[in-house]
TrEMBL record:
Domain spans labelled Transposase DDE: 109-150
Name by which UniProt lists this protein: DDE family transposase
Xref: InterPro entries: Tnp_DDE_dom (IPR025668)
Origin superkingdom: Bacteria
Organism phylogeny: Bacteria, Pseudomonadati, Bacteroidota, Sphingobacteriia, Sphingobacteriales
One Pfam entry name: DDE_Tnp_1_3
């Protein structure tokens, strides 16, 4: 990926994290049973979210291959606090909520006016067993689609 694109993604994520952090601190409940550590992680939340966004934009089949074969060798100068893959996976739950909010608010596209509905039929059970099905007793029924009867 181009370095300018990586920097652009990081700036957008960092601005979002700075904006959303006070709102999250105000709304979230604290767990009083567990003591908080004061030690900072080597990767900040916006760096981790940027790496997760880059993974989803790339052509990698899994997170480990992205992190080990791309992020560690090629992005070390942009993200100087990169940790091992195992530590990165351990730190991910800390930023899961912020990542989901970022994707929901900033990354989902807007409708252009033309939308498609997937009308693939779902077979609940064989027609001979309709009367025995307890789960979909009230909702399942025989039907027809472009593929045929079901």
């Amino acid at each position: 990926m181009l370095r300018d694109k990586v920097i652009e993604i990081f700036v957008k994520v960092d601005d979002f994290c700075i904006e959303i952090q006070p709102i999250l601190e105000e709304k979230l409940l604290e767990d009083r049973k567990i003591g908080k550590r004061n030690r900072k992680a080597s990767l900040c939340e916006s760096e981790m979210i940027s790496l997760m966004v880059l993974f989803h934009l790339g052509q990698f089949s899994n997170l480990k291959s992205f992190y080990v074969h791309y992020a560690l060798p090629h992005l070390k100068d942009l993200f100087p606090g990169l940790t091992s893959y195992n530590r990165f996976v351990e730190l991910q739950p800390r930023c899961a909520l912020t990542f989901m909010l970022f994707v929901k608010m900033c990354c989902l596209g807007k409708s252009g006016g033309i939308n498609f509905i997937d009308s693939t039929h779902i077979k609940v059970c064989h027609n001979r067993r309709i009367h025995q099905n307890k789960v979909f007793r009230d909702t399942a029924e025989r039907g027809q689609c472009s593929i045929g009867w079901f």
